[in-house]
Amino acid sequence: MFDELPLQTLSAYNYLIGGYLKHGKVEESLGLVHRMVHSGERPDEFTFSMILKASACVSNRVVLPRFLGRMAHAQMVKLDVEPDEVLFTALVDSYVKSGKVEYAMIVFDMIFEKNVICSTALITGYMNKGLVEEAEDV
Questions:
Q1: CA–CA separation, 51 vs 72, rounded Å?
Q2: Residue 127, Cβ density class (10 Å: 0-12 exposed, 13-18 middle, ≥19 buried)
Q3: Using an 8 Å Cβ cutoff, are 120 and 90 in contact?
Q4: Which end of the chain is more exposed for a tag (fewer CB within 10 A), N or C?
Q5: What are the Cα distances from residue 3, in Å, to 8, 13, 60, 62, 120?
């Protein structure tokens, strides 16, 4: 159906990518991101939040690039994508789940208005590494 659309817009790509992720089809969602970029569409905040969600997926049957979250973050900076609360939280969660709590803290410090979900993700990351004092400081 998607291939039959007269115009495959960023919104259409994002809806389909989100649908794939919702149904656990991580590889398909990332394949569609790749296709979207090659079609000339520029990823937006929503696209990047979904890429970061995919990067945080842990599964024995899905093999993802080792530094997917960092690569997405680098592309966000390169494309001058302005993170919002959702995107900041996705970044923190992605870094925590990949074991890069120090990067998560750098991103967390950039957030003007901290939220409970983002704070909890960072606290969890510190606790998983046994860094109780740092978790208490969040």
A1: 7
A2: middle
A3: no
A4: N
A5: 8, 11, 30, 25, 40
